C-alpha cells in the first residue's frame, strides 16, 4: 500500500465547521463493544482510563482533547472522505505491522544535506532521532550513515513552477529497500530536498510503502520562505542538468534549523511512522494523525495522539503511558549541554515552538500521577 502526502496550493474559504462526536460514539471508538476489547481496556489503571476518557469531554472549554475544526473545503477531511478507523478496526486489521523481538528498530536515513553548518546538522538529526525514540517509547531508533543524493542514483528535475530541485520518490524507496536492515520495523528516509512522485505531479511532501515498512519525506517546504520569490532554494540560472550529473546538488540550499522547522519535522516524522503501524488518518479528535492538505492545516495539528490513536499505538508497542509522556517532556525540557570532552560547537535545542505541547504534557502527567 502506498501513501502519498500532498498539498493543495489553493484554499477555498468556508465557514468553520466543528466535527462533534457524541460521547457514545467516542466511547465505542476508544473502548469497543467487543467483550475481549472491553476486558483489555479494563487493564488500564484508573488514572490511565481517566486520561483516555478526557476525550469524552472534548466539547468542554479547557479539555485536554479538542474536537477537529474544519477551516476550509481544502482541508483534508472534506477533500478526502475516508472511513473512520476506531480501535476495534485497528486491532482486527490482519495487515497491520506490529514490532516483535526480531523487528523492533526504527531506522532513519538522511538523504542530502541538512542545515547550513555541519555540526548543527548532526545535532538536528540527533534531535529528531531522540524525539522519535521518546514518541515511540519502547522501540529503538537508529541513524544510518548519511548518504548524498548521488549515492541514491535517483532521478531528479527542476520544478518549472517553483524553480527548485526535486528528487523522485520511487527511486528513493527502491534505494531504501536495499538499505533496510534485517531487524528493522521500518526505515524512513528524511531529506531537505523537495520531492515529486511522477512527472505529472507538482510535488509531494512524502510517499510511503506501508506494507514494506518504508517511507521518504521532505521538510523542504517547511521553510517559512519556501513560497516566497526570494526563497534561496530557487535556482537563478536556467539550468538544464543532465540525469546522472549530481554536481547540481553540491552546496544546494537547505533551510536553516529553527524551532518551527524542528516542530514541523517532528510532527511529520511521527505522523508518517504512525501510518506504518497501521494507524489511518484520525477523524475523532485533534490528533497528530489527522491528515493535512496544506501547511496551515498541518500547523494546527497537535504534537501528540488523541485517546483513540494513543490506545492503538500503546497496544502495538506496550509502553506505560506515563513513562512515554515523561520521555517526550524530558526531550523538550532537556538541552543537550556540552561536556568538557566535546570538541564540537554546541547548539541549544530550539524548543520554543514546543511550549504549548510542554504545558499539555504536564497536564496529562498531573492526571496520570494523581493519588
Automatic annotation (TrEMBL):
Gene3D superfamilies: Collagenase (Catalytic Domain) (3.40.390.10). GO terms for molecular function: metal ion binding; metallopeptidase activity. Keywords: Hydrolase, Metal-binding, Metalloprotease, Protease, Zinc. CDD domains: Peptidase_M54. GO terms for biological process: proteolysis. The keyword GTP-binding does not apply. Its cofactor is Zn(2+). Belongs to the peptidase M54 family. Probable zinc metalloprotease. This is Archaemetzincin-2. It comes from Xyrichtys novacula (Pearly razorfish).
Amino acid at each position: 500500500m502506498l501513501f502519498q502526502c500532498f498539498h493543495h496550493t489553493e484554499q477555498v474559504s468556508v465557514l468553520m465547521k466543528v466535527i462533534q462526536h457524541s460521547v457514545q460514539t467516542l466511547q465505542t471508538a476508544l473502548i469497543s463493544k467487543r467483550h475481549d476489547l472491553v476486558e483489555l481496556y479494563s487493564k488500564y489503571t484508573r488514572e490511565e482510563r481517566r486520561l483516555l476518557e478526557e476525550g469524552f469531554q472534548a466539547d468542554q472549554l479547557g479539555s485536554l482533547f479538542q474536537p477537529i475544526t474544519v477551516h476550509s473545503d481544502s482541508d483534508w477531511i472534506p477533500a478526502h472522505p475516508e472511513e473512520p478507523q476506531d480501535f476495534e478496526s485497528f486491532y482486527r486489521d490482519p495487515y497491520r505491522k506490529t514490532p516483535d523481538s526480531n523487528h523492533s528498530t526504527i531506522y532513519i536515513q538522511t538523504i542530502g544535506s541538512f542545515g547550513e553548518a555541519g555540526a548543527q546538522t548532526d545535532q538536528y538529526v540527533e534531535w529528531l532521532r531522540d524525539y522519535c525514540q521518546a514518541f515511540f517509547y519502547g522501540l529503538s531508533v537508529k541513524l544510518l550513515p548519511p548518504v548524498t543524493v548521488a549515492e541514491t542514483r535517483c532521478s531528479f528535475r527542476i520544478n518549472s513552477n517553483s524553480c527548485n530541485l526535486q528528487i523522485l520518490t520511487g527511486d528513493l524507496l527502491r534505494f531504501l529497500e536495499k538499505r533496510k536492515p534485517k531487524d528493522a520495523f521500518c526505515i524512513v528516509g528524511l531529506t531537505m530536498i523537495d520531492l515529486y512522485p511522477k512527472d505529472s505531479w507538482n510535488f509531494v511532501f512524502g510517499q510511503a510503502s506501508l506494507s514494506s515498512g518504508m517511507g521518504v519525506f521532505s521538510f523542504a517546504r517547511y521553510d517559512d520562505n519556501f513560497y516566497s520569490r526570494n526563497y534561496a532554494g530557487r535556482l537563478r540560472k536556467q539550468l538544464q542538468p543532465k540525469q546522472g550529473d549530481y554536481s547540481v546538488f553540491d552546496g544546494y540550499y537547505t533551510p536553516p534549523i529553527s524551532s518551527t522547522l524542528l516542530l514541523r519535522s517532528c510532527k511529520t516524522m511521527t505522523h508518517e511512522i504512525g501510518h506504518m503501524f497501521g494507524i489511518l488518518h484520525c477523524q475523532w479528535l485533534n490528533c497528530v494523525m489527522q491528515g493535512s492538505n496544506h501547511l496551515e492545516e498541518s500547523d494546527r495539528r497537535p504534537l501528540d495522539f488523541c485517546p483513540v490513536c494513543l490506545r492503538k499505538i500503546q497496544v502495538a508497542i506496550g509502553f506505560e503511558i506515563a513513562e512515554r509522556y515523561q520521555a517526550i517532556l524530558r526531550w523538550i525540557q532537556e538541552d543537550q549541554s556540552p561536556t568538557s570532552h566535546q570538541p564540537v560547537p554546541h547548539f541549544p535545542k530550539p524548543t520554543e515552538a514546543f511550549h504549548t505541547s510542554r504545558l499539555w504534557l504536564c497536564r496529562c502527567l498531573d492526571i496520570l500521577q494523581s493519588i
